[in-house]
Design brief:
This protein is an alpha+beta fold. The chain has 1 helix and 5 strands; from the N terminus they run H-E-E-E-E-E.
């Protein structure tokens, strides 16, 4: 047997199996991403204290405060797999009474006053 044929008979199946496995896992990833649908923020609820309709005043470390806002939830770093900036992970989502939404870094929140 020729040395080229010996090399191809060993390397060929390995390369083909790598290609097949890559295609399989890409297909499985596509199926999972199609079945998830629209992502929603993680909601936070503390029974009797904080729910979706409780308005709050959020004090941020830079002596800024957001008054009469609702806490919607947090950005979930596990749900973003592609080009999502690292600085946007773990953001607190706030909503004003007129519907505007604000994302602030959760680590910068100093105090939450519930009204």
């Amino acid at each position: 047997m020729h040395p080229f044929e010996q090399t191809i008979s060993i390397v060929g199946p390995i390369v083909v199996s790598i290609i097949v496995l890559t295609l399989f896992f890409k297909f499985m990833s596509w199926i999972v991403s199609q079945s998830k649908g629209k992502e929603t923020p993680r909601n936070i609820t503390l029974t009797g204290i904080l729910d979706k309709n409780t308005s709050a005043t959020i004090h941020v470390g830079s002596s800024q405060c957001f008054e009469n806002v609702r806490i919607i939830g947090f950005t979930d770093s596990a749900s973003f797999k592609d080009a999502f900036p690292h600085s946007m992970h773990g953001m607190l989502i706030l909503e004003h009474q007129d519907g505007r939404r604000i994302l602030i870094q959760a680590k910068n929140v100093r105090m939450i006053e519930l009204s």
